[in-house]
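To assess whether the prediction recovers the assembly geometry, we first specified each molecular entity separately, as shown.
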Amino acid sequence: MDWIRAHDLRLTAYALDALRTLSSRGLAVYGPARAEDRGGVISFNFADIHAHDLASILDIEGVCVRAGHHCTMPLMEKMGWPATARASFYLYNTEEDIDALILALEKAATVFGIA
Amino acid sequence: MIVTGDPKQAQIVADFPILAKPTSRGRRLVYLDSASSSQKPRAVIDALVHYYENDNANIHRGVYELAARATDAFEAARAKVARFVNAADTAEIVWTRNTTEAINLVSFSWGLGNLGPGDAILTSQLEHHSNLVPWQLLAAKTGASLRFIPADANGELQLDNLDQLLTGVKLLALTHISNTIGSIAPLDVIVPRAHAAGAVVLVDAAQSVPHMPVDVQALDVDFLAASGHKMCGPTGIGFLYGKRALLEAMPPFLTGGDMIKRVSYETTSYNDAAVEVRSRHQQHRRRDRLGCCGRLPPRSRDGLDPRA
Amino acid sequence: MDDFYKEYILDHYRNPRNFGHLEKVDASAEDLNPLCGDTIKMELALDDDGRVRDVKFSGKGCAISQASASMLTESIKGMRLEDVARLSQEAVLENVGIGISPTRMKCAMLGLKVLKSAALGEMASWPDEAR
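The predicted structure of the complete assembly is given in tokenized form:
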């Protein structure tokens, strides 16, 4: 289990860095800034793309993420998020999966005309 | 398909058959939703098939060899889960359908008998509906009040007023890792203070048990709930850990199966408490529980054993 | 499916038609899609023959739900309320003009559901001979 935790941490740190490259285009990551303070879970929104639209576009690219309120409606309301997209990692995920996520997000930006 | 240069990682990926199946558009499947439900390794899938092909019978019933084998496998799975979270006693593991049912079990079986007007339940602003709605209902039924540990904009718990919040609290019900934003609750700080205030502590470990070593004795939690399907096990199996003294004092949550000692048309007496509390669930979903037998060994094989 | 989000869908999402509120509302309804939290409110103004004189919608949500509602408002002006109440899912899908996966169907149909609920609610208050 120590291996799984270390693996989740490595992927989470890699994903946080990769997602930050899209922050100038309107990608917002929620939650603790440091991977060490998180489980292998990253919620985010991308510009004015609704999380469900984002998840649909990612799905076309083969990338499965959850979108919605994640069964935490009071928290979503408190934070002022109508919905978020959420990527989460486990022992079988790799850096390649996160690279695929970033490519799919870039595709979504193209579809929605985000410069 | 080679997805990684690391041979160990490549072997783990290869253990999950679904990851080798392309999507309907011919893309590689990139599964980034394990917080919802994990994929299943070959060993778990094989264990389910093996059970039905070799060992299927009603557990805790038949006197024939086949039933004994099924019962042994069933109880061996319970022992593995107990070791996995370092429970002091196998009887402290209660099978449930999932985390949600485990939390509801505590709400109905422990909460209804232990809470009343003037008592308080403390939870947090981060909770999944599964660790919120049962307490809303319990508060409404018992006259207890419901309070929340606030979370900041990053989803981290604000503990400045924790001791004040804990005044009069009989139950603290807290998520270990937020399923929405991933923040981790500092249980090492919170649990001792909750106990000092006289509260029983329940942890929703749906997102932590699959992802990090969780030692119920080191954390000193009273109840802990998790789901099998988020940790490579089959859908339909989860567990509640409860300290034995608490479980022994709890009435059955669901009745009708082998928690029963003697039944007449008018009355029923129940088995010894720890057994009764957990065994009300034993009649169904046996197949799913036995999937756990297949779940834990491959981790040990890969050096992923929690105690390794 | 790769043309899932056509330009006119995004245009309706970013520049929704008939978005806002009416000063005088004859019929209205509101609902949400609990799965994704999309909300839509529809407000109708009717003329004396029970035809839709004006319509406004408000709410928030995904491109599919908002664009679908926006397109719907454009298509019902002048329509008899009875016909609004009888609008079919097929008509909405034809309007939207892109493939909608089963999981997104609720998003696409939210506007229709709310609109029909407003129409039926109003018709229930009419005297029998007017229905």
